[in-house]
Amino acid sequence: MKASLPAGILSPTDEFDYWADIARTGRGDSKEQAEHFVEIFKPVSKDYGGLDAMSLMDAMEMVDVTQDTLDDVWRQTEFDPYPENRMNNLLDCIG
To answer: Residue 82: phi, psi to the nearest 5?
Structure first.
């Protein structure tokens, strides 16, 4: 287990909730960055809660949308880069 993994992030929904919490309670640049990530994650954040009930076709579409969304998060340049350890953990959770 990696020592730098975010504590308590066991699912994609946990990661999305983490950024939503910072967007609500943070201050300054961290709040703005969190709001930015929440906005980028919107296309997938609600769908992961209902993944078990999705049809195979919908799940396959979600894989494509997830890939595009994660690429957008990783490549954004408006704020500091998305933390690598968080992205690695998110990818592990999704996998």
So the answer is: -60, 135
